[in-house]
Amino acid sequence: MKGTDMAAELSWPAAGVARITLTRGDTHNTLTSELLETLDRLFDEAASAKARVLIVTGSGKTFCGGAHIKLFTDPASPLYRNARAIRDDYVKPIIRVFRRLREAPFVTVAAINGFALGGGCELALSCDFRLMADTARIGLTETRLGALAGAGGVQSLAHVVGRAKALEMALLGDQLTAADAKAAGLATAVHPAAELSDAALAFAKRLLLCSPISVAETKRALYRCETAAPDEADRIALDAVLAASAGAEWWEGMAAFAERRPASFRMEDG
């Protein structure tokens, strides 16, 4: 569905590659209830259409500006001075929507075209990879506003950059340049702003060379093993091996290697 009246839109820049663009850059692509509902629906559409890679990007000068501050400052808002509503009716739904990126069987790539601050940084953290424009900035800026990065920041950042760097970023609330984010391990790669869209698509196409089932099982196992004890991590890995080897892609890959030809992988129905 396309149209500038929508908070986000879905397109297909290549077969198997979906792209969700946050379209309200003029208002910083903030996390309104409309945007969250739209993302939820577009995730369903991408999954139903058998996307193998999903790129998430912004528009204008902003990837995602984070929380919609007016929700907290407008006396008519149900969130105004209502801590339980902020937790249960705003942050909790954001967590649920963002978690879908991590739990998706396909790869998710944040193409960070501009500012990714607060909840925007958390949206990027929810993706498997983060590619940044060299002019973009990213950071968990909540402490500068008296808030807390509870929509994925405190849960995920240390797994990506390590505890020491996570404490530095989350407590100071600084904005990192793309170069600093790359040095910290937060950004996968940095590209000239004019080349980011093409670079993200090229990165996605590299992933299309891989088995969809292998990618899905490897991704799921990696995230589950983050918090698992050693014995449980081994069980997770063995279950992933069982799932992968039960599918046709395992045998296609082995045959292709033996026959010295490229493997031909297609998303299996299921």
Automatic annotation (TrEMBL):
Single Gene Ontology MF annotation: catalytic activity
This one is known as: Enoyl-CoA hydratase
Q: Which family is this sequence assigned to? A: Belongs to the enoyl-CoA hydratase/isomerase family.
Q: What is the lineage of its organism?
A: Bacteria, Pseudomonadati, Pseudomonadota, Alphaproteobacteria, Hyphomicrobiales
The record's section on Gene3D superfamilies has: 2-enoyl-CoA Hydratase, Chain A, domain 1
Name one process (GO BP) from the record.
fatty acid beta-oxidation
Q: So where does this one cross the membrane?
A: none
